[in-house]
């Protein structure tokens, strides 16, 4: 039985997001707006099937996948790149590799109680986000 990430999670910490966005090539004006946002994750999980929505007042991003099955991800509204994306379990951690133009890109999620962690990696830059469960 894998861990259950389902729920609504509100951001409480967002460390190094600016450097992560620079590494992704996001322009200055967009970074200034994005840096003010308080993203919410709405996660629906059924076993190995995930729907992760990242919601903000500026833009939303939605990603649907099955653990262990590579898919074509287009990071629409983010850096608008195409990746071959694969998410795997590492114990109860969700480890994502986004293969594409940018090397060493991916993210990792894990949960401790009602806290959801997310590490976003782009090259040698890592953004560390923390979310609290609100529903
Ligand atoms: O999440 O891959 O939970 O998809 C990363 C933002 C700002 C847009 C968000 C809107 C990277 C302008 C998704 C931000 C910055 C800045 C919220 C992270 C890029 C553009 C939509 C992500 C995974 C894991 C699931």
Ions and ligands: 1,3-dihydroxypropan-2-yl (9Z)-octadec-9-enoate
SS-derived structural category: mainly beta
Q: Helical region count? A: 2
The parts where pLDDT drops under 50 for at least 5 residues are none
Short description:
InterPro entries: Calycin (IPR012674), Fatty_acid-bd (IPR000463), ILBP (IPR031259). With 135 residues, the chain is mainly beta.
Structural summary, described in words:
Residues 7-24 form the Cytosolic fatty-acid binding proteins domain. This protein has 135 residues and is mainly beta. The chain has one domain: Lipocalin, CATH 2.40.128. The protein contains 2 helices and 10 strands. The protein has a 10-stranded antiparallel sheet. A hairpin with a 7-residue loop joins strand 5 (71-74) and strand 6. The longest helix has 8 residues, at 17-24. The radius of gyration is 14 Å and the shape is globular. The model has no long low-confidence stretch (mean pLDDT 98). The structure holds 1,3-dihydroxypropan-2-yl (9Z)-octadec-9-enoate. 1,3-dihydroxypropan-2-yl (9Z)-octadec-9-enoate is lined by residues 21, 24, 26, 30, 34, 37, 39, 41, 52, 54, 56, 58-61, 63, 78-79, 107, 118, 120.
Index terms:
mainly beta; Lipocalin; single chain; globular; binds 1,3-dihydroxypropan-2-yl (9Z)-octadec-9-enoate; 2 helices; 10-stranded antiparallel β-sheet; 135 residues
Task: Lay out the secondary structure.
Elements: E1 7-15, H1 17-24, H2 28-34, E2 40-46, E3 49-55, E4 60-66, E5 71-74, E6 82-90, E7 93-99, E8 105-112, E9 115-122, E10 125-133
Antiparallel strand pairs: 1-2, 1-10, 2-3, 3-4, 5-6, 6-7, 7-8, 8-9, 9-10
